[in-house]
Amino acid sequence: MGKLKTVNIKGKEYVEVNERLIYFRKTYPKFSLTSEVLEKTDKSILILASIINEDGRVIATGMAEEEKGSTFINKTSYVENCETSAWGRALGNFGIGIDTSVASANEVENAIANQSKPSPKKSTIKTQQKKIVLDIGDENWYNVLSYIAKNKALGLAKIIPQLETKYSIKASVKKELAKLS
């Protein structure tokens, strides 16, 4: 792979998502890059991006979560920002632009912007979002089943850790998920 254009952030070189995307489109014209909203609330969004080969097999994935209003851009464009981050992570996991880091320049800049925000007051720490408890039969359960059906090629060993970034998964649910594999 040729050298992709990088941006220096705090002494380390990172590839921007647009550079990864341009390379991907030129090099893999028969592959697709898809996005799936796993969860969207009034305050945040969780998106999974998948790279799929010409045979329909998922080759790499990337997840991103953004909070509405967490940065200046996220006040109006948290959905778009999240999708771009998920794409960058999927493309990085596919091996594009990872000479120095899987994280993209966009992802690092966003993380730095979030770190520079003032720390929450003690009273708001208690109200921070917790993981959603995933239970059999609730609305999230059907979303998870749909996600598993679409990505069964990944296998549960990879799917469950992705789900655990957002959900608190009970042992009984893990048993049900194991029956699906």
Give the helix/strand layout.
Elements: E1 6-9, E2 12-15, H1 17-27, E3 32-40, E4 44-52, E5 58-67, H2 74-94, H3 105-115, H4 122-125, E6 132-134, H5 139-150, H6 156-163, E7 167-169, H7 171-180
Parallel strand pairs: 6-7
Antiparallel strand pairs: 1-2, 3-4, 4-5
Helix pairs in contact: 1-2
Shape: globular
Distance between the termini: 36 Å
Radius of gyration, rounded? 18 Å
- Helical segment tally? 7
In the CATH hierarchy, the third-tier topology of the largest domain is known as Enolase-like, domain 1
The unreliable regions are: 121-128
Largest sheet: 3 strands, antiparallel
Strand content: 15-25%
Number of domains: 2
Q: Give the tally of β-strands.
A: 7
Oligomer class: single chain
The H-and-E topology, N to C, reads as EEHEEEHHHEHHEH
Strand order of the largest sheet: 3-4-5
Average pLDDT rating: 76
Q: Please identify the top-level CATH class of the largest domain.
A: Alpha Beta
Classification by helices and strands: alpha+beta
The CATH architecture of the largest domain would be 2-Layer Sandwich
Helix content: 40-55%
Core attributes:
Enolase-like, domain 1; 2 domains; globular; 7 helices; alpha+beta
3D structure, described in words:
The chain is α+β, with helices and mostly antiparallel strands and 181 residues long. The protein has helices at 17-27, 74-94, 105-115, 122-125, 139-150, 156-163, 171-180, and strands spanning 6-9, 12-15, 32-40, 44-52, 58-67, 132-134, 167-169. The protein folds into 2 domains: 1-120, 2-Layer Sandwich (Enolase-like, domain 1); 130-181. It is 43% helix and 23% strand. The chain has a 3-stranded antiparallel β-sheet with strand order 3-4-5, with helices on both faces. 27% of the residues are buried.
